[in-house]
Design brief:
Elements lengths: L11 E10 L13 E5 L2 E5 L2 E5 L8 E4 L9 E8 L6 E7 L7 E9 L7 E3 L7 E6 L2 E5 L5 H7 L11 E2 L7
Parallel strand pairs: 5-9, 11-12
Antiparallel strand pairs: 1-6, 1-8, 2-3, 2-7, 4-5, 4-6, 7-8, 10-11
Length: 173
C-alpha cells in the first residue's frame, strides 16, 4: 500500500475525537496519559484531555473536563496532533507493562472536525478566610500564596458560596 498526504494534512491543530471505552478493558485511564491513536494508516502518540459534552444534541463549543475515561458514556478526547479528516474511524491503545502483547485496546470512535476554539471547562474550588464583607463585595485572606497564582486569577471575577463578589485588590509583587 502506498499513500501520501496533502500539505494541509501535515499541519498541527487541536483535534477532537469522540470515543467510547471497550468492555474488555478494566484499567483506569487518567486524562493526559500517553495513548496511541490509530487513525486510518496514521499512528499518533498523544496525551489527550478527556471531556464530556454539556449538551449532546446541540452544537456547542464548550465541554466539561473529566479526570478519567469513563465506561458508560461517549467521551471527547482532545489533543494537539496532525489534521485528520472527519469521517475517520479511531482505535485507541495504551501500553501494558509485563504482558506478551505490548498494546491494549482501550477505546474506539470517530474523528470530529478540528476546532481550536472549543473551550474545556474545569471547575476549581478556592478556599480562604473572609477578612471583610461589605454589601456585595468580600475580601478573602490566605487564598493565594504564590505570585504566579495571583497573576493568573487577577482578571477572573471570583464569587463566594453565598454570591458575594471577591474584590480584586491583590498585593503587588
Amino acid at each position: 500500500m502506498l499513500s501520501t498526504l496533502f500539505p494541509h494534512e501535515c499541519k498541527i491543530t487541536a483535534m477532537h475525537f469522540k470515543i467510547r471505552r471497550t468492555l474488555e478493558n478494566k484499567e483506569i485511564v487518567p486524562s493526559k496519559a500517553t495513548m496511541e491513536f490509530s487513525c486510518g494508516f496514521r499512528r499518533l502518540v498523544v496525551r489527550p484531555t478527556f471531556s464530556m459534552e454539556l449538551n449532546s444534541c446541540s452544537k456547542t463549543d464548550k465541554v466539561r473536563y473529566m479526570r478519567f475515561l469513563r465506561k458508560d458514556m461517549n467521551v471527547i478526547a482532545t489533543a494537539y496532533c496532525p489534521f485528520v479528516c472527519q469521517p475517520c474511524k479511531i482505535i485507541t491503545f495504551t501500553k501494558v507493562p509485563g504482558s506478551p502483547v505490548n498494546m491494549d485496546v482501550v477505546a474506539s470512535g470517530i474523528a470530529l472536525p478540528p476546532d481550536p476554539l472549543k473551550v474545556i471547562l474545569k471547575r476549581i474550588v478556592l478556599t480562604g478566610y473572609p477578612l471583610r464583607c461589605h454589601k456585595k463585595k468580600a475580601t478573602i485572606r490566605y487564598m493565594f500564596f504564590d505570585p504566579k497564582d495571583i497573576k493568573y486569577f487577577k482578571p477572573v471575577e471570583l464569587y463566594t458560596q453565598n454570591g458575594l463578589r471577591v474584590s480584586n485588590h491583590f498585593p503587588k509583587f
